[in-house]
Design goal:
heterodimer; A: 385 residues; Peroxisomal Thiolase, Chain A, domain 1; 2 domains; nine-stranded mixed β-sheet; two-stranded antiparallel sheet; 14 helices; 38% helix; globular; B: mainly beta; 2 helices; 8 strands; transferase (chain A); Thiolase-like (chain A); Thiolase_C_2 (chain A); Acetyl-CoA acetyltransferase (chain A)
Chain lengths: 385, 129
């Protein structure tokens, strides 16, 4: 297996991009990545996208986007794993370069979610849950995560205020990210007095609906050392795992088994332990999710995620800053793009290009991207050479 | 809701039909073709009991389009006597008096309908026992 490097990372502004089409949103970020890498050819492309069919009525995305990116006949594949589509695309690109099949691979993620109404978006997102045994009965994604929150609060005593700390921290980080959809700083009071969506989760516990894309250029480390003018970022670990799609089929409702198993695989490949990780981008689709995720990644003991967040362990300047980009919560959550954008943030941080939110002397970073209520998870670990 | 899709699930939604693995005894709801615990492929058809307890719950305040006229409504995960868990609405209850651990029973109820001329879908909802 060849060693794989990230030599380009690109992401344009996320938000409600009414004036831009899906194809243009993608091409804009892909060109940023290509220019960042300074490459003049791409051998193959992977696109993470959850549901362009339901959001804009467009499938066969890989060919459309290759055409509009001017890459003509190169092979291209769309990858889908609900909200983990982007992470799954990163892994597909990693495997293709590692295997020796292709040298320079573009990995992109895209979702254009705001062409449909709120109802339309709820319907499309709900396809990431079990249609017949969850969605049929009237549950929503905030509802599923709310039930995980109730289980976590009951088992470990996690408090309403601790959940709010996740949102406050991530909006604080996002206020320093010019590409964030919602860069506003918020307070604990704002969160706990915002509109209730599914008890105990309120609107400020939820990530938004977003238009956006992100892209990476991968190549073998050996080639990167020759052509890359910036610090070379190596992907040292890649882990992927699945779980039951239905939340109710799991033994323990407030643990993310797929994340835990994906992390174990990534740590093993990277020969790293949780304490070696200096910063992480994780899937905070809801505040409770970040708490469960940092437990599953082994950053804190099970049940201590809420307390650790409240104590500032995961804040900028804390022991392991989590979601320095603003996370899904503030930066936005164009579902298929999220997993790719997480790697973009880690690459920028490890190169020292993160501006006001820079983590000093960061050498090892991790990303965790998750589909549905945890039915799929991808974990990647990166190190700057 | 397409009619084959609704019709196909009737044995589960109307009668709580489940599959019990003939080798290891694990129960699956809905039934499946291979046991995820022991990989056996032979099952016995059983009917789940309608009694259980509430494990976790929420109140949906912002609902999908087929359910907007029902908000706010409670949804929970119920563990039935056999150890099988199902996700279901909780009805005939006071929303602010719900708590985990309460005993519930599953009843046959209308779940959703597809506009004025579409299919009316039935299934199970739980009520405090």
């Amino acid at each position: 297996m060849r060693e794989v490097a990230i030599i380009g990372a690109g992401m344009a502004k996320w938000g409600e991009l009414w004036e831009k089409s899906l194809r243009d949103i993608f091409v804009e970020s892909a060109l940023l990545a290509i220019d960042d890498a300074g490459v003049d050819k791409i051998d193959s492309m992977y696109i993470g996208c959850m549901s362009s069919g339901l959001f804009v009525g467009q499938e066969h995305l890989a060919s459309l986007l290759t055409d509009y990116l001017g890459l003509g006949p190169v092979p291209a594949t769309r990858v889908e794993s609900a909200c983990a589509s982007g992470g799954a695309a990163v892994r597909a690109g990693f495997i293709e370069v590692a295997s020796g099949i292709s040298d320079i691979v573009l990995v992109g993620g895209i979702e254009k979610m705001l062409d449909v109404s709120g109802d339309g978006a709820t319907f499309a997102l709900a396809t990431a849950a079990d249609q017949e045994y969850e969605v049929f009965n009237g549950v929503t994604f905030p509802g599923l995560y709310a039930m995980m929150a109730v289980a976590h609060m009951e088992k470990y005593g996690t408090t309403r205020k601790q959940l709010a700390h996740v949102a406050v921290k991530n909006h604080h980080n996002g206020s320093m990210n010019p590409l964030s959809q919602f860069p506003q700083k918020i307070t604990i009071e704002d969160v706990i007095s915002s509109v209730m969506v599914a008890d105990p989760l309120r609107i400020l516990d939820c990530s938004p609906i977003t238009d956006g894309a992100a892209a990476l250029i991968l190549c073998p480390v050996e080639l990167a050392k020759k052509i890359c003018k910036k610090p070379v970022i190596k992907i040292i670990g890649s882990g992927h795992s699945t779980d039951t799609i239905a939340l109710h089929s799991r033994e323990i409702l407030c643990e993310l088994g797929s994340t835990q198993r994906a992390a174990e695989k990534a740590y093993k490949m990277a020969n790293k332990k949780p304490e070696d990780i200096q910063l992480a981008e994780v899937h905070d689709c809801f505040t409770i999710a970040e708490i469960c995720v940092i437990e599953a990644l082994g950053f804190v003991e099970k049940g201590k995620g809420g307390k650790a967040t409240e104590d500032g362990l995961t804040a900028l300047g804390g022991k392991i800053p989590v979601n320095t980009s603003g996370g899904l919560k503030s930066k936005g959550h164009p579902v298929g793009a999220t997993g790719v954008a997480q790697v973009v943030e880690i690459a920028k941080q490890l190169r020292g290009e993160a501006g006001k939110r820079q983590v000093q002397n960061a050498r090892v970073g991790l990303t965790q991207n998750m589909g549905g209520s945890g039915g799929s998870s991808l974990v990647h670990i990166m190190e700057v050479l | 809701m397409s009619s084959p899709r609704n019709w196909r699930e009737m044995p589960q939604r109307y009668r709580l039909e489940a599959a019990k693995c003939k080798v290891c005894g694990k129960i699956f709801f809905p039934p499946r073709l291979i046991c995820s615990a022991c990989q056996a492929r032979e099952f016995e058809k059983i009917k789940l009991s309608r009694e259980g307890k509430l494990i976790t719950y929420t109140v949906i305040r912002v609902g999908p389009s087929q359910f907007v006229d029902q908000v706010p409504y409670a949804i929970g995960i119920v563990e039935l006597k056999e150890g099988v868990k199902v996700l279901t609405q909780i009805t005939d209850c006071e929303l602010d008096k719900l708590s985990t651990g309460i005993k519930v029973k599953l009843e046959f109820r209308k779940i959703q309908e597809d506009g004025a001329a579409g299919i009316i879908c039935y299934g199970y909802k739980c009520v405090p026992a």
